[in-house]
Amino acid sequence: MWPIQTSGRILDGLRALRRDRRGTTAVEMGLVAPALFTLLMGIAWFGYSFWLQNALDFAVTAAARCASINTSTCSDVDSTKTYAANASGASFSSSAFTVNLATTCGGKTGNQVTATYAVPLVIPFINISLTLSSQACYPS
């Protein structure tokens, strides 16, 4: 008779465990968390990429204008690249920029600055890299 009482207690324990709902929130969070964090990280990295694109646009525009107007600061290719990298407000190196002095801009002679920058997006479960580019030409 003793084994029967034990199996009855085991069945009662299993029934009680089945009715217990205290851990369902943790299980649901464990199922939803990967998708939620992937979405949040994606939003953050795409926002950062848009900010970098804006900084790249500003840097090439400012550098092309500097090369055309302020020839003492942007007198040659290297100084214009350095000016663009410093004007961006982001961590761009001067090697991301290409400068063409005395080129044709819309039928007029001007200075052209282009830039490309690769952004690796650190999103869980997704391996994506964006290449940002910008170009500006300012007449002399």
Instruction: Please give the number of β-strands.
Output: 3
N-to-C span: 104 Å
Strand composition percent: 25-35%
The best one-word shape is rod-shaped
Secondary-structure element sequence?
Answer: HHHEEE
Largest β-sheet summary: 3 strands, antiparallel
What share of the residues lie within helices?
Answer: 40-55%
Integer average pLDDT: 88
- Runs in which pLDDT lies below 50 for 5 or more consecutive residues are none
The helix count comes to 3
Spatial extent as radius of gyration: 30 Å
Question: Order of strands across the widest beta sheet?
Answer: 1-2-3
How many domains? The number is 1
Summing up helix and strand content along with how strands pair, one would put the structural category as: alpha+beta
Q: How is this structure best described in words?
A:
It is a single chain. With 140 residues, the chain is of the alpha+beta class. The chain has one domain. 54% of the residues lie in helices and 28% in strands. It is built from 3 helices and 3 strands; from the N terminus they run αααβββ. It has a 3-stranded antiparallel β-sheet with strand order 1-2-3. A hairpin with a 2-residue loop joins strand 1 and strand 2. Helix 2 packs antiparallel against helix 3. The chain is rod-shaped. The N and C termini lie far apart (104 Å). The model has no long low-confidence stretch (mean pLDDT 88).
